[in-house]
Amino acid sequence: MKIRNLRCGIAVLLLLASILNYVDRQALSILAPTIQADLRLSDADYGRIASFFPIAYTVGSLLSGRIGMFWVRGRAWGASSAGGRVRTC
Predict the structure, then answer these.
(1) Which of 33, 57, 56 is nearest to 46 (CA)?
(2) Counted domains in the chain
(3) Domain residue limits at 26
């Protein structure tokens, strides 16, 4: 059975994922004044914290890319899922 417009559906899902990713990243900058007031952070302190996120994202992307290249896909998905659970705890 052939699914009609599968490529278009996948492209739309990828677009929606990219939009959600962008909006999620903007939430931190929108909430910056509230976070700074709540945690009593100076602009320099907040800048250091905010600059850590792209660095961590880059390192995580490089590591997950390596894992995806060399591991069996089932194991890579399992490790990714477990890593996500550890981060949110």
Answers:
(1) 33
(2) 1
(3) 6-88
